[in-house]
From TrEMBL:
UniProt cross-references to InterPro entries, sorted A to Z: Pyridox_Oxase_N, Split_barrel_FMN-bd
Matching PANTHER family: PYRIDOXAMINE PHOSPHATE OXIDASE FAMILY PROTEIN (AFU_ORTHOLOGUE AFUA_6G11440)
Coiled-coil region: none
Domain Pyridoxamine 5'-phosphate oxidase N-terminal: 9-137
Name this protein carries in UniProt: Pyridoxamine 5'-phosphate oxidase N-terminal domain-containing protein
TM segment ranges: none
Signal peptide: none
Species per Swiss-Prot/TrEMBL record: Microdochium bolleyi
Recorded superkingdom: Eukaryota
Amino acid sequence: MVAYFPSLSDSLRAWAQAQTVFFIASAPTHGKHVNVSPKGYTDGTFKILGPNLCAYVDRTGSGNETISHIYENGRATLMFCSFGSQPRIMRLFCRGRVIEWDSLEFQPFLSDTMKLEKVDAARAIIVLDIIKVQTSCGYAVPRIRQTALDNSAVGAVAPQCSSLSENLSPLEERLAKEKNDIGVAAFEERPTLKFFNSKREREGTAHDYQNEMNTSSLDGLPGLRAARRDTGENLLVGDRICLQSTRYMGKGSVMFVC
């Protein structure tokens, strides 16, 4: 059954933080495209920072939709779903903001707030204020077969978590338990993105790629500000000739055009 909550409970927080993949959806106020992006590498890029706050590190990629949409109207929805023993879908309805790689806020937020180390070719941190939480049954989502995870892999995870349980907080114990579920433990990260982003970082080409691919959205909205600036755009002029911002007002939004 569907249920709504004003914030994340400890159990939902642990379950979400344990997942290896989530999806983020966003859209322009006016335009043809609604974007949905899958996100992995959650151990090293995604953090739930409180009952109504989460953030993830946005690595360099070919698309720029989420950043453009959040700059334009701030709306985003995160979705998590279980592929394991207990079915569940959870959506986090959010208002977001973007901290780009060249912002003075970027490194303190990454290291002090998110407690994360350097992420190669990171272009931004997406910070999301959670305004509503929705859970539903998830019965239509397929689950992973037990044979997808061999006994050696299960054994490698479970003892490690149990041996640390005496030193864990209740929230950390919940997180360790969730990570043992087959719907989490059966997944492994692809090395491809880390390889290419590490290569771009070493060669100093990450920002060149951002300049080429991340200056605007599919609907022509302004994209990564650092990329726009580095390609010679006057940001003040560029922002004024586009749909500049939206202001959230109750059930609707008001668009301001300069």
